[in-house]
Design a protein that fits this description.
The chain is built from one helix and 19 strands. It is mainly beta. It starts with 12 loop residues before the first helix and ends with a strand. A hairpin with a 3-residue loop joins strand 16 and strand 17. The chain has a 19-stranded mixed beta barrel. It is globular.
């Protein structure tokens, strides 16, 4: 287990990854190559219905500085420069999107044994300022995530979260959307040797008084093959199988069916990621 509480985004992450990560109904292809100088170039394409989205991503690492440049099929240029540990526990991140002149952002992250802080500010005349902080340990953590729009003088985001962890169980409670949504989740490792785990999430909307309940599980058939399944209270059932057919090269096949409307066609997704 990690020493400190981590960042706010780590609260409930294990359960979210179990229930939602790698599930898709699109066709996706990712190819990564490396130049002799260590530059990583990744080309990806995703077909969503009749729409095809593609991008090319280049990552260059020089000591503790990582430069990430991505160009998508809409001629947008995304640039991220990360400086890892200019001081102990510190990370700085600069990002921008061209031609969007308001997209520039500067972020600072700080991790300590008892605190995790992330703060960012937009590089505009009236920026959006975001702050998230977590205090505690790797066993108990309490945090908040807020964003303030200096142009309107309003808080655009105000969230709070709490997490309790031990060797095989992680439980979390978050209040999101300015108090409109309450999420409770858990993640339980059943058998570490086979990566077998179960998890669940209950989301309650105070405005609609509606509950969404999702439960799921994962299991490794062998060291290279993992299966996952989930179902929610609306009858949507999904499953996937992921196989690492060579080091860091994955093929994932997933599907979803509406058990309350079996006359509708099932959705299928295929993702292929290739690395040398």
């Amino acid at each position: 287990m990690a020493k400190g509480p981590g960042l706010y985004t780590d609260i409930g992450k294990k359960a979210r990854d179990l229930l939602y990560k790698d599930y898709h109904s699109d066709q996706k292809f990712v190819l990564t190559t490396y130049s002799p100088t260590g530059v990583a170039i990744t080309a990806s394409g995703t077909k969503k219905g009749e729409v095809f989205i593609a991008d090319v991503n280049t990552v260059l690492k020089n000591k503790n500085v990582t430069t990430d440049i991505k160009v998508d099929s809409n001629s947008h240029l995304f640039t991220t420069i990360t400086v890892d540990e200019p001081a102990p526990g510190l990370k700085t991140i600069f990002s921008c999107k061209i031609p969007d002149q308001r997209s520039g952002k500067f972020e600072v992250q700080y991790l300590h044994d008892y605190v995790g802080i992330s703060t960012s500010v937009g590089l505009t005349a009236n920026p959006i300022v975001n702050f998230s902080g977590v205090v505690g340990t790797n066993v108990v953590a309490l945090g908040t995530d807020v964003a303030f729009d200096s142009q309107t003088g309003n808080f655009t985001k105000c969230n709070a979260g709490f997490s309790v962890s031990n060797a095989d169980l992680i439980a979390s409670l978050t209040l999101n959307d300015k108090g409109e949504t309450l999420n409770a989740s858990y993640y339980h490792t059943v058998r570490p040797l086979t990566n077998t785990a179960v998890g669940g999430e209950v989301s309650h909307s105070f405005s609609t008084n509606e509950n969404t309940i999702t439960v799921g599980t994962q299991h490794s058939l062998d060291p290279l093959t993992t299966v996952k399944a989930r179902v929610n209270n609306f009858g949507k059932a999904s499953a996937l199988i992921q196989h690492e057919w060579r080091l860091k090269s994955l093929v994932t096949l997933s599907g979803e069916v509406d058990t309350k409307a079996l006359d509708k066609s099932a959705k299928f997704g295929l993702a292929l990621a290739l690395k040398p």
